Amino acid sequence: MKPSIHSSADARRIAKRRLPWMVFDYIDGAAGYELGAARNRAALDAIDLRPRILRDVSDRSLSVPLLGKTAKVPFGISPMGMCNLSAPGADMMLARLAARENVPLGVSTVASTAMEPLIEEAEGNAWFQLYFSGDGIGTFKLVERAKTAGYETLILTVDVPEVGRRPRELRHGFTMPFKIGPKQFFDFAMHPRWSITNLINGKPQMANFDMDGFEFDRTESRAKADWDTLSKLRDIWPGKLIVKGVLDVDDAVALKSAGVDAVQVSSHGSRQLDSAPAPITALADVRAAVGNDFPLFYDTGLRGGEDVVKAFKQGANFTFLGRVLQFAIAAAGEEGLNVLWEIISDETSIALAQIGEVSLAP
């Protein structure tokens, strides 16, 4: 019997009931008063898709070109930290999905499964996401490790010079590494299915910091990263280099000039600066600035197939889904993830038919 998931909203509703409050708010929360998240959602909702009629759209394809390869669908998996909080083994579920769909799995610096087994499970369909942290020594160790593991694409996330204040996390005392006090113990006791499952499988950890001789402090300043840092990274990284977290036209143009292979328009899921512009509205301006041929990706606030089509219409060449996938896993495990992925694929295909198009590929 398939889970009763018919949209990402269903997955979120079920996940909210099943997850501890602390974990749900970590996944779902945004910066400040969460006005940025609401503003981006309103901007997405305000974009029209115009229906067209009497066009033969019977032979549709969701595949799109992606950095010299072909993805089966026009969306991949955003790098997300500590995914195994949504359910034990969530990282590997996402990796198997990436392998099957031939789409990139974003492997976070703070993933709860190490980068090596993830790229293996994803059958090479994995991109490593990098945070510059502290003095950068540990950061560049991770770069070398990713290279050794076989990663061919690196995502440098640049929109976290300091971790944004997320009140929902702070109210629950959420920290990485995970710490359990009286408040958290009560929260877990109220959600016994999640708690027992995680007790059996072990507390999720930041798995990329068990062999390199340094620890990752989530709250540590990342403010030292600058254009020289990017230049050094470009010099030592032989593969594709994507810069994620761009909302300014001038920054996008400078990144193109600096030799990056793609820019990703994003506000970090609205988790950094509450007053940031809605990324979906910045997308068209960035596209106009970098030209039609430069690879441009998008994430933040995508809930379904029509959102994906809207992002492409604003200039994206590829999109990434984030927290909705964690909600599907929390709601119904790997089956829930696969069901939601199929739903979003169907929504995208149906939207194409409605607007009289057969593909999002250029």
Automatic annotation (TrEMBL):
Gene3D superfamilies: Aldolase class I
PROSITE patterns reported in the protein's UniProt record: FMN_HYDROXY_ACID_DH_2
Example GO BP: aerobic respiration
GO molecular function annotation: (S)-mandelate dehydrogenase activity; FMN binding; L-lactate dehydrogenase (NAD+) activity
Residue ranges of domain FMN hydroxy acid dehydrogenase in the record: 1-362
CDD domains: alpha_hydroxyacid_oxid_FMN (cd02809)
Gene Ontology CC annotation, any one: plasma membrane
Protein name: (S)-mandelate dehydrogenase
Sites where the protein binds glyoxylate: 26, 131, 166, 268, 271
Enzyme class: oxidoreductase
SUPFAM superfamilies: FMN-linked oxidoreductases (SSF51395)
Cofactor requirement: FMN
Catalytic residues, chain numbering: 268 (proton acceptor)
PANTHER family with a match to the protein in the record: 2-HYDROXYACID OXIDASE 1 (PTHR10578:SF107), S -2-HYDROXY-ACID OXIDASE-RELATED (PTHR10578)
Species for this entry: Octadecabacter ascidiaceicola
Name of the gene this protein is made from: mdlB
Binding-site residues, FMN: 79-81, 108, 129, 157, 244, 266, 299-303, 322-323
E.C. designation(s): 1.1.99.31
Family indicated by similarity: Belongs to the FMN-dependent alpha-hydroxy acid dehydrogenase family.
Superkingdom field: Bacteria
Pfam families per the UniProt record, alphabetical: FMN_dh (PF01070)
Keyword entries, A-Z: Flavoprotein, FMN, Oxidoreductase
